[in-house]
Write a structure and sequence with these properties.
globular; about 20% strand; about 325 residues; homodimer; alpha/beta; 7-stranded parallel β-sheet; Rossmann fold; 12 helices; 3-stranded antiparallel β-sheet
Chain lengths: ~325, ~325
């Protein structure tokens, strides 16, 4: 019996786009998306999970493609009003988006796990593939910057990534347990490929890998681990990936992203523009257009990634 | 020096309308509105204080006069979305209204009192008069009905007052302390009148009077206590006042409402249509149009109430 399950590790928008491509290339039961929760935070008394939400909105087709984040058909009455009441308005929560945060917060307080809430939300949004958090235990990315320690969203949204990053820590990661169904899926001998989506390595993928047992479970699942480079033509498509590389004293390149995953990586998909950068890597490299501008390019990139994984598996 | 402070006890919309009239008839420093908190509740993880909110919206001119409750210029994206997520949607929370609940919940959890939050919200909404809750301790009205015990909002909103009421209890009232600034204001010898707004006696005013010490503080303040009848022409203007009188075995009349306040009451303003009903009362009765259809009638009724109080005081 051939292996069928694809496990994808995803952060924000770039990751969700590839997850959507994978969801179109695979039967629903054959895709499990593991979401970073290192950028989860508590804001206005609400439990917010930005990467899970991005996955939920992108996979359900509810994402706001004009803004590039949040929900489509959004309204902003809540945000306008909370500002007049003296509440914090630097993290913009649309009225529809807010419903998800309020409902999740209520359920978490009632004792449900983040996994249970995520599963139910995805089901109600009509998402057929599985989306699970990396852990049900709190992990919080914190940034040591030239302005001192910042909670992740304060760095990312409030300060718009302007502070210079010196170090990243994933608070709580040492005590966190990897999500049990993810561990079980990785252990059952049915994994076809692990896909590391083109998310920011430092803040989207490394928090997932920092959960004790997760890296070993991925390495030991018997399937190729294939990443897609978040660097295209020597630049980050979106967000602070390139800026962080520079601030952390690393070369801005597709190779640097691959090196963050070390021996875990068996395959790497990079844009043709970055082919020269990755010649020294031990991972099998495939070049393909990696800019996902529409649904067709997302699905095409997903198929490229799966092909590379299958080629690597066939060679073993 | 003449006494100047008017203390008004208010429940929902009817009470807020008279409070608005009083705010136009008095200097801001001369009005203190005490809000019922017996219908406060926790919903979707949020702390909701319907009567305080109604006062805040009506006194700031932000009330929705088309719906008769909530805020003007309201949108409903949150409510539409939470229903699709399987959340409870029987208590309708507009997107703008929601901002107040989220911000209040956050501040209460951070350790502020309901009084502090109310004061700040009113200030930010541009309300010059003082609005305070009857207590900072939780009091929760519960309804014994032919369907068993119901939390107040489940009876009032979810079941639309349809169950037959057998008994009302104000849970927590025995342990609640009256709001300290209200007690101090009543004790300082400067009270010109206590006004009991035309709110439902059973569920809006009696919870206030049930807070230990409140009734004595009102009775002992040295000023006339004047109520406006919530019954006009033998019927309730709005809400279940008449239905409750009947279900509790009482006559539906303006006199019944006055009798609920017993010896506390020294003056009573009723509609001309109800003059015959109140002949036996010991309180001084004044007839005047009590339907508040616009700002002018609210202010006129306020002046009528103050005149009656001043007449009673002059006779003493």
């Amino acid at each position: 019996m051939s292996r069928s399950l694809v496990v994808a590790l995803s952060g924000g928008v770039g990751g969700a786009k590839l997850a959507l491509g994978l969801s179109r290339a695979l039967a629903p039961k054959d895709l499990l998306v593991v979401a970073n929760t290192g950028d989860d935070f508590e804001h206005l008394g609400l439990s917010i999970s930005p990467d899970i939400d991005t996955l939920a909105y992108v996979l359900s087709g509810l994402d706001n493609q004009v803004m590039g984040w949040g929900r489509r058909d959004e309204t902003w009455s809540f945000m306008e009003t909370i500002a007049t009441l003296g509440g914090e308005s630097w993290f913009r929560l649309g009225d529809r988006d807010l419903a998800l945060h309020v409902e999740r917060t209520r359920r978490l307080k009632a004792g449900e796990t983040l996994s249970q809430v995520t599963r139910d939300v995805c089901r109600r949004l009509g998402i057929a593939v599985r989306v699970l958090p990396m852990s049900d235990d709190p992990v919080r990315t914190r940034v040591l910057s030239d302005e001192g320690w910042l909670d992740f969203q304060h760095y990312f949204v409030r300060r718009q990534c302007r502070p210079v990053v010196r170090e990243l820590v994933f608070e709580g990661a040492n005590q966190a347990r990897p999500q049990a169904d993810v561990v079980a899926a990785l252990a059952n001998g049915n994994v076809r490929a692990v896909v590391i989506c083109p998310s920011n390595p430092f803040i989207s993928i490394e928090p997932i890998l920092a959960v004790p047992g997760m890296r070993d479970a991925l390495a030991g699942c018997g399937a190729p681990v294939v990443a897609v480079s978040p660097i295209v033509g020597g630049r980050a498509v979106k967000g602070p990936t390139a800026k962080m590389m520079q601030e952390l004293g690393l070369t801005i390149s597709a190779a640097t992203a691959a090196q963050r995953y070390g021996s875990l990586l068996s395959g790497y998909v990079v844009d043709p523009a970055d082919a020269d950068d990755v010649r020294g890597l031990s991972a099998a490299v495939k070049t393909a257009p990696t800019l996902m501008t529409d649904l067709a390019t997302r699905e095409a990139l997903a198929r490229t990634v799966l092909d590379l994984a299958d080629q690597i598996a066939a060679r073993r």
